[in-house]
UniProtKB/TrEMBL annotation:
Family matches, as InterPro entries: Fe-S_cluster_ET
Any Pfam family: Fer4_15
Protein name as it appears in the record: Ferredoxin-1
Superkingdom of source: Bacteria
SUPFAM superfamilies: 4Fe-4S ferredoxins
MF GO annotations: 3 iron, 4 sulfur cluster binding; metal ion binding
Co-factor requirement: [3Fe-4S] cluster
This protein's UniProt keywords: 3Fe-4S, Electron transport, Iron, Iron-sulfur, Metal-binding, Transport
Length: 70
């Protein structure tokens, strides 16, 4: 899995960091906008990443399910 984000569309709702804190952060010093901790999360994080993508109100999160682990 490879994760990416369109930083131009994030509206800083904070959902992603709440749902998948091992992959996304919404740092106060960044105005709560998305920060990606890793583009290649471990398999244990995949369900949370998919949920974060589904619940992102601005369609900012993208997942390439075919992306290699490294
Ligand atoms: S859930 Fe979407 S809109 Fe909300 S902070 Fe994360 S990327 Fe931005």
């Amino acid at each position: 899995m490879k994760v990416s984000a369109n930083y131009d569309t994030c509206i800083a709702s904070g959902n992603c960091g709440y749902i998948a804190p091992g992959v996304f952060r919404n740092l106060e010093e960044h105005g709560g906008f998305i920060s990606l901790i890793t583009e290649h999360p471990p398999e244990s994080e995949w369900p949370a990443v998919r949920r974060a993508k589904r619940l992102c109100p601005s369609g900012t999160i993208f997942i390439d399910e075919t992306g290699s682990a490294r």
